[in-house]
């Protein structure tokens, strides 16, 4: 059950009333509203612009000034011709798979990658080699797909095959990923 949102006084939050108030006070309005609007596009009024500017200012102070990152400003829309030329229209797909027991959904290439890396880690441990943990900036965001790592020495040919698969897993087509998932 999803948690119930409340106001600061503990009253249940009425989303429709909040949305209505924000629109009346011109925080935002759907883009092209007089012509029926466009789903997902919004225009900001004076208070919305001020709020957005404050958020960007805080973001800029943290990332650009404190973290020494560089700021760029790019277009948010990409023409169809660019996506077609780059191959994204014809070839881009993130194949997904669902765990029948838990119902969790994973990217197929990430699942294959994590399982093979876990098996190779187990092989290294079985051979008495030091296993280095990779520091991943997105580790907290990642779902853990491999629950237990079995310490098992693999045949050298199997290790080589796993390393070759890992080298090309991100470029595999649907059928190749399906075959890897079935193994």
TrEMBL record:
<dbReference type="GO" id="GO:0070150">
    <property type="term" value="P:mitochondrial glycyl-tRNA aminoacylation"/>
</dbReference>
<dbReference type="InterPro" id="IPR045864">
    <property type="entry name" value="aa-tRNA-synth_II/BPL/LPL"/>
</dbReference>
<dbReference type="GO" id="GO:0005739">
    <property type="term" value="C:mitochondrion"/>
</dbReference>
<dbReference type="InterPro" id="IPR027031">
    <property type="entry name" value="Gly-tRNA_synthase/POLG2"/>
</dbReference>
<protein>
    <submittedName>
        <fullName>Glycine--tRNA ligase 1, mitochondrial</fullName>
    </submittedName>
</protein>
<keyword id="KW-0436">Ligase</keyword>
<dbReference type="GO" id="GO:0004820">
    <property type="term" value="F:glycine-tRNA ligase activity"/>
</dbReference>
């Amino acid at each position: 059950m999803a948690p119930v949102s409340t106001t600061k006084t503990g009253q249940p939050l009425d989303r429709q009333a909040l949305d209505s108030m924000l629109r009346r006070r011109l925080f935002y309005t759907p883009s092209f509203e007089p012509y029926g609007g466009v789903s997902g596009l919004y225009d900001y009024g004076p208070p919305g612009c001020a709020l957005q500017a404050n958020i960007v200012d805080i973001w800029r102070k943290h990332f650009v000034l404190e973290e020494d990152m560089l700021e760029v400003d790019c277009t948010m829309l990409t023409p169809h011709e660019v996506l077609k030329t780059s191959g994204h229209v014809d070839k881009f797909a993130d194949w997904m798979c669902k765990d029948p027991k838990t119902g969790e959904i994973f990217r197929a290439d990430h699942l294959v990658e994590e399982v093979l890396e876990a098996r190779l880690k187990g092989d290294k441990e079985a051979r008495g080699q030091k296993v280095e943990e990779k520091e991943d900036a997105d580790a907290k965001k990642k779902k853990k797909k491999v629950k237990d790592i079995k310490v098992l020495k693999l045949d050298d040919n199997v290790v080589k095959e796993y390393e070759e698969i890992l080298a090309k897993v991100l470029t595999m087509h649907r059928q190749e990923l399906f075959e890897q998932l079935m193994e």
